[in-house]
Amino acid sequence: MLKGKTAVVTGSTSGIGLAIARAYAAQGANIVINGFGAPDDIEKERAGIEAEFGVQARYSAADMAHGGAIAVMIAEAEAEFGSVDVLVNNAGIQFVSPIEEFPIEKWDAIIAINLSAAFHATRAALPGMKQRKWGRIINTASAHALVASPFKSAYVAAKHGIAGLTKTVALEAATFGVTVNAICPGYVWTPLVEKQIPDTMAARGLTREQVINDVLLEAQPTKQFVTSEEVADLAVFLASDSAKSITGVILPIDGGWTAH
Ligand code: NAD
């Protein structure tokens, strides 16, 4: 389905982004993976994608906190593969704290990585997509693009911002064969969720089990974590030609969370 196309997936050394990168490679796309991690682990993933799916995979170490590095990542992908056809703005971090104690540098980092990075990457990739009259921009938002939870002020603000960015760019790109959508997962068991458990325990005075069952899964009527593979399958569908009329959508995949 994506043979001859190139997909850049930010934050794809782990979790949801890695699942999306692998799913696009399985559809024949050349891939740019990005994110942090141990160099050996990243190289293993990169080489594994090439070997398993018979595509080309490159790694960009661009830090999503820096707009200049993001523009370079897109330019390098275009130079190497000839185009960036699918852009997934997925990199994200979390920090959990009451707002009175929320560290200012954590606020700045979350807004930069979870929101501004999508602006910088979209700004750099959209001109080529418009010129070729085909493109897919998929923003990994969150159920927190639609509803809030306490102690996540920066994350919820950034994800609501992503929803606004998604709708705006969808309107600007609509006549150019470029769709722009946001996927809004509920809780997916990834390092991002695992890492917030100790802080949530502290902020709410709960045990680990209470956080998992009474905070995380409490929000999700299915009482099950969403899987990265389910999110990746949705990203594949949104990149398909069957989804060409779906644009500007803030799409939950959250086990019913935002139906509340
Ligand atoms: P994860 O921690 O497994 O992966 C995050 C990825 O982002 C990693 O590859 C990491 O290296 C990368 N990253 C972090 N900071 C970066 C930076 N400055 N520059 C480049 N890369 C950076 O987390 P995940 O759960 O897979 O999260 C992926 C996205 O999904 C995030 O945007 C997150 O907000 C969103 N999301 C996650 C959940 C969930 O429950 N896990 C739910 C809704 C939305």
From TrEMBL:
Its EC number is 1.1.1.30. Keywords: Oxidoreductase. GO terms for biological process: monocarboxylic acid metabolic process. InterPro entries: 3-OHbutyrate_DH, NAD(P)-bd_dom_sf, Sc_DH/Rdtase_CS, SDR, SDR_fam. It comes from the Bacteria. GO terms for molecular function: 3-hydroxybutyrate dehydrogenase activity. PROSITE patterns: ADH_SHORT. It is an enzyme of class 1 (oxidoreductase). Belongs to the short-chain dehydrogenases/reductases (SDR) family. This is 3-hydroxybutyrate dehydrogenase. It comes from Bosea caraganae.
